[in-house]
Amino acid sequence: MKLIYPLNVKNEFVFNSSPRDFTVEEIPLYEFTGEGEHLVLKVRKKEMTTWEMLDAVSGHVGIRRRDIGYAGLKDKHAMTIQYISLPAKFEEKLSSFSHEKIKILDTTRHNNKIRVGHLKGNRFEIRLKKVLGVQKDKLDSVLKWIKQNGVPNYFGNQRFGTNGNNWEDGKKLLDGTLKMRDRKTREFLMGSYQSYLFNKWLIKRMELNLLLEKFTEAETEQVMGLPEGSLKGVGKQPGFYKLLEGDLMMHYPYGRLFEVEDLETEAERFATKDIAPTGLIPGSKTKRAGGLAGYFEQMFDEEMKLFGARRYAWIQVTEVKKRYIEEKAHYELSFVLPKGSYATNVLDVLRGEAL
């Protein structure tokens, strides 16, 4: 049976990125030991960035912000729960900490400082409003598709600033046409440009996937200007996202990087969620795809004096739960995404706007 990506299913609903309608909770990478020289805080915040929360805590106990460990940055416009760590000798000072936008929910000891990336993923709870009966049925259908297949792993709007053009300053910094002293801001803007290039590449691969849903391999080759026969057998793969010769895969949800050798075999493994394709975050010391996959990647690859990386192009949405409150026309969702992924990717697929 042909698998149809639900991009043509347009759903209308209202989503407000606010603490009332949007909750994010970190899932720690490991269990905390209960002993050690570091104190781990489970912190709930709202209407403030992670940096602002760290400044409030560090200012109260009298340490530098960089002395506090954290696993990831959390959205300002949500109710977020995350874990931070600081030297345990400041535990007594914390007992008098009070802030209208921050609440310390729990504390425990641990052997080491929490580092960036030390989390399995994030649990999201989202409330969609003005969802009437027919829209509810459509959302149910698309959500079922998402549970079975996953979603594209775009970088979210948070990476690109209020006006969506942070990447332009990042490009200028890399080109040398813009100077900036603040190191953290400079790194963020240049990372925004890397994220922009990744998203542009993923859009191109999504165009290929969508064409193969509607046209033959030969017709798709013509539309995209690809060599004759280069897509042979690709359209028959079981999933929506099609693997190409030379694609670099990783075991999922984390693991070793390797190149596709047999498309049919690896497509079956991808369908069982054992592995997933990756895309390039351009930079140095990063492996590039080969073959036809490399052709697509080269369109959005640039030399830059920054470390690059490989990022999952396609992710799975797990622990999906839903609840429809008919009298309020609210559709409530709960799901888990791997670290570094954005809830907006799920919302965009639900709207039918994920390209």
Indicate the topology.
Layout: E1 22-28, E2 38-46, H1 50-61, E3 69-70, E4 79-87, H2 91-94, E5 102-110, E6 119-128, H3 133-149, E7 151-152, H4 166-175, H5 183-214, H6 217-224, E8 248-251, E9 257-259, H7 263-271, E10 275-281, H8 291-298, E11 309-312, E12 314-315, E13 318-325, E14 330-338, H9 343-351
Parallel strand pairs: 1-4
Antiparallel strand pairs: 1-6, 2-4, 2-5, 3-4, 6-14, 7-12, 8-9, 8-10, 10-11, 13-14
Q: Over the alpha carbons, how many angstroms does the gyration radius reach? A: 22 Å
What is the number of strand segments? 14
Label the structural class.
Answer: alpha+beta
Percent strand equals 15-25%
CATH architecture of the largest domain, by name, is 2-Layer Sandwich
Number of helices: 9
Mean pLDDT: 93
Largest sheet: 8 strands, mixed
- Percentage of residues in helical conformation: 25-40%
Family: Belongs to the pseudouridine synthase TruD family.
Function: Responsible for synthesis of pseudouridine from uracil-13 in transfer RNAs.
Keywords: Isomerase, tRNA processing
GO molecular function: RNA binding; tRNA pseudouridine(13) synthase activity
Task: Kindly describe this structure.
31% of the residues lie in helices and 24% in strands. Strands 1, 2, 3, 4, 5, 6, 13 and 14 form an 8-stranded mixed sheet that branches. Strands 9-8-10-11 form a 4-stranded antiparallel sheet. A two-stranded antiparallel sheet has the order 7-12. The longest helix has 32 residues, at 183-214. A hairpin with a 4-residue loop joins strand 13 and strand 14. Helix 3 (133-149) crosses helix 9. It has 355 residues and is an alpha+beta fold. It contains 9 helices and 14 strands. The protein folds into 3 domains: 6-16 and 129-150 and 318-351, no CATH class; 24-120, TruD, catalytic domain (Pseudouridine synthase); 152-315, Pseudouridine synthase (2-Layer Sandwich). The protein has helices spanning 50-61, 91-94, 133-149, 166-175, 183-214, 217-224, 263-271, 291-298, 343-351, and strands at residues 22-28, 38-46, 69-70, 79-87, 102-110, 119-128, 151-152, 248-251, 257-259, 275-281, 309-312, 314-315, 318-325, 330-338.
